[in-house]
Amino acid sequence: MFKGKVAIVTGGGTGIGKAAAMRFAAEGASVVIANRNRETGKSVVDEIRSAGNSAIFVETDVSVSDDVERMVDCCVEAFGRLDFAFNNAGVSGTQFIPSAEFSESDWDYAVDINLKGVWLCHKFQIPAMIESGGGAIVNNSSVAGKIAAAHGAHYAASKHGVLGLTKSMAWEYAKSGIRVNAVCPGVIDTELADFLTDPNVAEKVKAMHALNRFASPVEVANAVVWLCSDGASFVTGTSLDVDGGFLAGR
């Protein structure tokens, strides 16, 4: 489906990012794994290459402009183009603290990575996509991008911001042949959900999903890859809930 195409996946070393990178590669795309952790990022590259597909690793902190610019430059230098991007890198930040008690550094850390980082990715990805004749971008928001997250306001604010940015970019760059969408996952079985290790808490949170379970990273990756495919050619500026019915019950 994506033979001859090139995808960037930020936060591609683990969880949803890794699953998306593997799916892009399985569909024939060359993949850039952008990640702060060199060990996990290079491990995903090795997995992709061992399956006979192409990938490179670029150490990237998405909150740093020079890093993001270098990420895109390395992509174009290695593969000659950029067609797809999954802007997935994010952090949950310090949780379960009343909003007025956050430190400024707590707030900045979450917003710089989750929101500013997505904007920086757009800033450098879009010119490269225009040079390639167009493309598709998917941003990772959250169900917390649509509802309140009490005691996690910095996370919710950043993820709400991702949806506003997604809609704005979709309008601005539609005539350039670039589609921009977002996914809003519910609770996913990844290391970011390690606060659910208490079985009693986990069961209560599962029950908040109509399907009464957490999603696997692959289930979100499947949605991301579809949004980049020709099957979603008339889909832009939208957010796809991959949440097992979580928001339907709110």
List descriptors.
globular; alpha/beta; 250 residues; Rossmann fold; 44% helix
What does this structure look like?
The protein has 250 residues and is an alpha/beta fold. The protein has one domain: 3-Layer(aba) Sandwich (Rossmann fold). Helices cover 44% and strands 15% of the residues. It has seven helices and seven strands, in the order βαβαβαβαβαβααβ. The protein has helices at 15-26, 38-50, 65-79, 104-131, 153-173, 199-206, 217-228; strands at 6-10, 30-35, 55-59, 84-87, 135-140, 178-185, 239-242. A seven-stranded parallel sheet has the order 3-2-1-4-5-6-7, with helices on both faces. α5 (153-173) links the parallel β5 (135-140) and β6 (178-185). α1 (15-26) packs across α7, α3 runs parallel beside α4 and α4 runs parallel beside α5 (153-173). The longest helix is centred in the middle third of the chain and has 28 residues, at 104-131. The mean pLDDT is 94.
